[in-house]
Amino acid sequence: MKSILFLILFFTNLYSNNFGYFIKDYISEDNINFRELKYEDYGNLILDEFTIKFELDFEKLENKTYYLTIVSDKDSLIYTNIKYEIINNIIVVKLDKFQEKEIFFKYKYDSKKIAQFRWNYINSFEYKYFLKYEGILYGVAYGIIFCAFLYYLIIFFSTRMKCFLYYSMMQLFVLLSLVGFMYFSYHSYLSSIYQALVDTAETLSFLFTLLFAQAILKTKEKMPAIHIFINIFILLNILDLIAIFIYKYSILYIYIPFYIGFLIPTIAGAIAVIKGDKNALVYTIGWLVVCIFIYAAEHYLIPISGIYTVHIGAPLESLIFSFALGYMLKILVKEKNEKEKLLIHQSKLASMGEMINNIAHQWRQPLTHLGFINMNFQLALEDKKIDIKYLNEKIKESNFQLDFMSKTIDNFKDFYKVNKQKENFYLSDEIYKAIEIMQPIFDNLNINFEFKIKEDTQITAYENEYSQVILNLLTNAKDAIILRKISNPQIKIILEIKNNKSITTILDNAGGIEKEHLNSIFGPYFTTKEKGTGIGLYMSKMIIESHFKGKIHVFNTEDGVSFSIEI
């Protein structure tokens, strides 16, 4: 974003010649004949000696004080007619009404080379508060921008939202541009390769600014016309990168007014605000400020040297946008928490439905048995063959079936009970809880089930949650077997320890998962079942990763699928 300002300042200050309204500069190769100093004339001229002359206009200088700053090969300076000081390896000369009207600097090299000389002037305020402390200014600026880059790059890897990536990359290339600007401010000559590198960083920073504007304002969905317009400028920046590679300098920003580029996201942001996007207001204000800032810099309305201006404006803009993105991130976290609460609620409802279905399945046989008992009572009454012994036998049978039904409810009640405290438990015990619920269903469906314990381990966590994960995976395996009508169905659980990690593997022979679905099955609401909720595997993954700090993996086997829980 600051790349445009960098270009402006670079070409108007870093290598300007006659921008001083009270000072004129001349160059001489023979120390006699002087001509007006122009960078394009001597920028590539090979010399062994030359003299620079400055003429001061005291009427225009009035009673003000400025300071002339010169970047050159100080070791080759053989003569000057004034006093100077060295600050940050730069020659500094005080300019006031008491100074010489003509100031000379004569240089002589041991061998011919490109004349290394560049000058600028600063006011008293800059001399007093910036020049001597510019190292601190640069350090703070780079620190703020680098932190913004690193922080939002991490946020991108967490959220996978492109707007954070674009903003992070924008900050990176802005930082590289500023470092290049600072580096060249201490050197009198800029080679074409270095120029190309800096121009590349600048163009990339502006390119990512436009991409960031598209992503944060969602122009593709909300403002298609603006989206296309921004795409045109994105294409121009890509072409400019190609031009830099060929010609070693940027062409685009020679012909396009720099502040116009920032009017594009500013206008897009204003339209977004008008359409009701209140979050776009901060970004719009930020872009507008930068736009005004660049315009003022272009027209020399800022009374501070370019290098200081850009090192103040760049981190300030970073802070403004970082606060805005931080607020946006806060909203995203809130929405995510609300979504997770909804998913947990839906998961509980789905679990209750599964629980009721399982209870109904397990109650079907004892209810049928109780029905037969009642039928026997009815027949016995009709035949008048009831005696105390027969009655006790039937009551005993009824009580056995009722006890089984009551025990079934207790098992499910304990299984879905919410644990508020972590407890020590063996993984095998929690796996057996899930098996106890599913075993009658497996028996009824003639599913060959096997649980093999190679090595058990004890952990501290919420015990019922591990059982719920195992139950979800067993239920999915059972559903797949029923759906695909697998002959000789098999489900197997293996508990073992590898590399100091406990691994529970659930395998089936239900044919596996389609390859295009393997990377999606743990996503919320993803399901291949006709009446599935798509939250079982998502919640299982959340439980294992959040509460057990583990991982859950899935891959297809030769005849089915394998889920492994690693903690």
Automatic annotation (TrEMBL):
Q: Where are the transmembrane segments?
A: 136-157, 164-186, 192-213, 225-247, 253-274, 281-302, 308-329
- Principal EC category: transferase
Q: Sorted alphabetically, which keywords does the UniProt record give?
A: ATP-binding, Kinase, Membrane, Nucleotide-binding, Phosphoprotein, Transferase, Transmembrane, Transmembrane helix, Two-component regulatory system
The UniProt record lists the EC number as: 2.7.-.-
A Pfam family for this UniProt protein?
Answer: HATPase_c
Q: Histidine kinase domain location, by residue?
A: 358-567
GO MF terms held by the record: ATP binding; phosphorelay sensor kinase activity
Task: State whether keyword Transmembrane helix applies.
Answer: yes
Keyword flag Phosphoprotein: yes
> Cross-referenced InterPro entries, in alphabetical order?
7TMR_DISM_rcpt_extracell_dom1 (IPR011623), HATPase_C_sf (IPR036890), HATPase_dom (IPR003594), His_kinase_dom (IPR005467), HisK_dim/P_dom (IPR003661), HisK_dim/P_sf (IPR036097), Sig_transdc_His_kin-like_C (IPR004358)
- PANTHER family named in the record: PEROXIDE STRESS-ACTIVATED HISTIDINE KINASE MAK3, SENSOR HISTIDINE KINASE
Q: What is this protein called?
A: Adaptive-response sensory-kinase SasA
The organism that produces this protein has a lineage beginning with: unclassified sequences, metagenomes, ecological metagenomes
Q: Which gene encodes it?
A: sasA_116
